[in-house]
């Protein structure tokens, strides 16, 4: 199987049906022991220091690992991706664009996905055979999505940790490049988690916003009798409502992350209520336009919200730890404990 990189979640059903092994460039970047090397590669090649670390990391991963085909999401994700893919093109990387439509209708989503299908099934009309192949792939992926949904449920039962919830859902953006292999990993993990005794915490937290550069946040909050039991974007990457969709078009229409904040907030509010969330940590990345969303989020949600910002570090800095600790103390006071 030929590898293809993705800059964020895209219709992987199309890519796997076309015979590719999918690699989420973000996951390679953030899980690397020497992740700063990827940022340094980008800055050495001219990327400014005042630019999101994720964009620089993605670029470094492509160059360092010889990824020569990439799907770049040019609408519905990071506004810097357009410039990133122009630079990658200049380095000889073959780019396949994908857009989440600005007009959030099923018809527009279908057009975007059909355009995407045409890029990988060149010269072939999008007939019933191609659609069936993509839907068969979606059914194969559903086995992993069911297991990830179970891990999400076990997090609410305090059996799975917030970090496990984060890792095993976010990895469904690409299934680690191996659908069957990763599904088996999920099966074993679910069995192991189900056998545990729950470790209940007093404070239930929601984590919203882009996945963190600082994954130690999950273990840190657990030191203070709290746990993150809802990871917004990671859960969306795992498509927990996939079985309500009759086809790939409906599935990506229902995916909240690339569309309006209003659409996202409906799902966030639903989960806050269903999971009895006490407080929200809203993570934003330095130099990202999404930081402005915090104004609306705080005015809309009826529970306390703490906004924290990450940059290059892959661990929480001292100031952020103090702010989180104070936030958790306040939540405990509100609960009367």
UniProtKB/TrEMBL annotation:
It holds the Pfam family HGD-D. Transmembrane segments: none annotated. It comes from the Bacteria. GO terms for molecular function: hydro-lyase activity; iron-sulfur cluster binding. Its cofactor is [4Fe-4S] cluster. InterPro entries: FldB/FldC_alpha/beta. This is Benzoyl-CoA reductase/2-hydroxyglutaryl-CoA dehydratase subunit, BcrC/BadD/HgdB.
């Amino acid at each position: 199987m030929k590898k293809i990189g993705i800059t964020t979640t895209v219709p992987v059903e199309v890519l796997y049906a076309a015979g590719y092994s999918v690699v989420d460039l973000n996951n390679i970047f953030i899980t690397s022991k020497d992740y700063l090397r990827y940022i340094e590669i980008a800055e050495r090649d001219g990327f400014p220091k005042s630019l999101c670390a994720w964009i620089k990391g993605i670029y470094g991963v492509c160059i360092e690992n010889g990824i020569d085909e990439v799907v770049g999401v040019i609408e519905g994700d990071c506004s810097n991706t357009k410039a990133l893919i122009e630079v990658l093109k200049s380095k000889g990387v073959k780019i396949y664009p994908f857009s989440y439509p600005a007009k959030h209708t099923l018809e527009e989503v279908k057009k975007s996905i059909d355009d995407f299908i045409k890029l990988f099934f060149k010269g072939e009309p999008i007939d019933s055979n191609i659609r069936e192949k993509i839907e068969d792939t979606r059914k194969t992926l559903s086995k992993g999505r069911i297991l990830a949904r179970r891990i999400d449920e076990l997090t609410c039962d305090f059996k799975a940790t917030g970090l496990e919830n984060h890792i095993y859902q976010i990895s469904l953006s690409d299934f680690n490049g191996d659908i069957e292999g990763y599904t088996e990993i999920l099966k074993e993990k679910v069995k192991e988690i189900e056998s545990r005794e729950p470790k209940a915490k007093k404070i239930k937290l929601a984590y919203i916003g882009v996945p963190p550069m600082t994954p130690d946040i999950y273990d840190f909050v657990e030191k203070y009798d709290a746990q993150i039991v809802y990871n917004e974007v990671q859960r969306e990457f795992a498509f927990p409502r996939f079985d309500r969709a009759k086809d790939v078009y409906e599935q990506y229409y229902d995916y909240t992350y690339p569309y309006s904040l209003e659409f996202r907030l409906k799902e966030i509010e639903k989960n806050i209520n269903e999971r009895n969330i006490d407080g929200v940590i809203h993570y934003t990345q330095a130099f990202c336009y999404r930081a402005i969303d915090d104004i609306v989020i705080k005015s809309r949600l009826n529970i306390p919200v703490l906004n924290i910002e990450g940059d290059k570090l892959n661990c929480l800095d001292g100031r952020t730890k103090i702010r989180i600790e104070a936030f958790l103390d306040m939540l405990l006071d509100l609960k009367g404990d």
